[in-house]
Amino acid sequence: MIWCVEDDESIRELELYTLRSTGFEAEGFDSGTAFLSALESRVPELILLDIMLPGHDGVTILKQLRSSTKTAHIPVIMATAKGSEIDKVQSLDLGADDYLVKPFGMMEMVSRVKAVLRRCGPAQQPVLSRDGLVLNPDERTVILDGSRINLTYKEYELLRLFLSCPGTVFTRDRLFTEVWGMDHLAESRTVDMHIRTLRQKLEPWGERIQTVRGVGYRLEATV
Fold first, then answer.
1. Statement to judge: residues 96 and 169 lie in one domain
2. Buried b (16+ CB within 10 A) or exposed e, 35-51
3. Which of 23, 79, 127, 215 is most buried, taking the most CB atoms under 10 A from its CB?
4. Last residue of one domain, picked from the residues 120, 149, 183
5. pLDDT tens, 46-71?
6. 34: domain range?
7. Are 159 and 200 members of one domain?
8. Confidence band (pLDDT; 50, 70, 90) for 122?
9. Which has the closest alpha carbon to 99: 65, 162, 48?
10. Looking at the 3D structure of the chain, how many domains does it have?
11. CATH number of domain containing 147
């Protein structure tokens, strides 16, 4: 999940639309206050943080993030004003992982988000493949019979989990914990809906993701 903290609604909605259309899950906040409130109960995978915000400005928020053990590890990309070198230097000195200079292109934003996630994630993860499907964790790509398949963040994480443990039966509660990072199923149909769309995108390969009645799902064991 990518969090975009931006008080300009048009910019924020464009950021969210672009991230979602390129396979990420994203949520927006129009102020530092709203962002910090949400942070009390959950944490994102990466934060895109504007410096000029009402109430708590971006630099103050960055200091808070880096001073807390709960949030110190979260990658942060700062959005700075054009030509404001002091903002860039201060942000990097305080622990920002990268910065974008306004106005910036949406594809540049996506490229920097991917680069920071690669840099801040595990050093190297094995490529997972089976029967013509190849999942590359470092590139976050899924290739099926030579063609790229565009998956949402949660669909990708479900597929990665199944490929990592073929034959293992996952209950819905365990899938929700592993993929959504929550201890209980807030909506009983959430996992089922994501499994259904994942199967549809991977047809006919998706038939390998089997339903275990009354329990959950598994990827059929390797023959």
1. no
2. bbeebeeebbbbbbbbb
3. 79
4. 120
5. 999 998 888 788 889 999 998 888 88
6. 2-120
7. yes
8. low
9. 48
10. 2
11. 1.10.10.10
User: What is the overall mean pLDDT for the chain?
Assistant: 87
- pLDDT > 80? residue 180: no
91 and 143 both lie in a single domain: no
Looking at per-residue pLDDT, the higher value among 28 and 179 belongs to: 28
3-31 as b/e, with b when 16 or more CB fall inside 10 Å? bbbbbeeebbeebbebbeebbbbbbbbbe
- Cβ-based neighbours of 89, under 8 Å, separated by 6 or more: none
pLDDT of residue 94: 80
Can you point out the beta strands (E) in 106-194? Answer: 128-130, 133-136, 141-144, 147-148, 170-171
pLDDT at 124 over 70: no
Q: Of the residues 120, 143, 177, which one is the last residue of a structural domain?
A: 120
72 and 142 fall within a common domain: no
* Res 83 pLDDT > 70: no
- 64: phi then psi, degrees, rounded to nearest 5: -65, -40
- Which one is predicted more confidently, 5 or 123? 5
Nearest-10 crossing angle of helices 58-67, 85-93: 10
Closest CA to 161 of 180, 187, 148: 180
Residue with tokens 């942000």: 91
18, two tokens: 């672009």
